[in-house]
Design goal:
Layout (H helix, E strand, L loop, with lengths): L1 E6 L8 H9 L7 E6 L2 H9 L4 E5 L2 H10 L4 E3 L23 E2 L4 H8 L1
Parallel strand pairs: 3-5
Antiparallel strand pairs: 1-2, 1-3, 2-4
Length: about 110
């Protein structure tokens, strides 16, 4: 299974170990997206940087739209139409924000950003 990982928050006041983990995921800037294979090491990295990114399993339609957008590994996206929603980018998705594991709803977010 493949996961789409989107960076939501920027670099200001970020610890060095978080910045290093984001660089290992190739997420240098806000609104960039990478598609990675689901593995225990990736899941551990995502749990570490869950306060800066959102992720979920990507479907074939969304993957095709990303590849049409251009890029090989990192996809530069626009900010999402109608925003990230609800309570903003400082709160986890499970309690109404934009961060963390979104599940299948990541496809809706990425399609609004393409």
């Amino acid at each position: 299974m493949k996961l789409a990982v989107v960076r939501v928050r920027g670099l200001v006041h970020i610890r060095h170990d978080f910045e290093y983990a984001l660089r290992m995921l190739s997420l240098i800037k806000r609104n960039h997206c990478v598609v990675v294979e689901d593995s225990p090491s990736i899941n551990g990295t995502l749990e570490k940087v869950k306060h800066f990114v959102t992720w979920g399993p990507v479907n074939e339609q969304t993957l095709a739209a990303l590849k049409k957008r251009g890029g090989e590994k990192v996809f530069a996206l626009s900010p999402p139409r109608k925003g990230y929603g609800r309570k903003g980018i400082k709160i986890q998705f499970k309690v109404g924000g934009a961060l963390g594991d979104r599940g299948e709803k990541i496809n809706d977010l990425v399609m609004r950003m393409v």
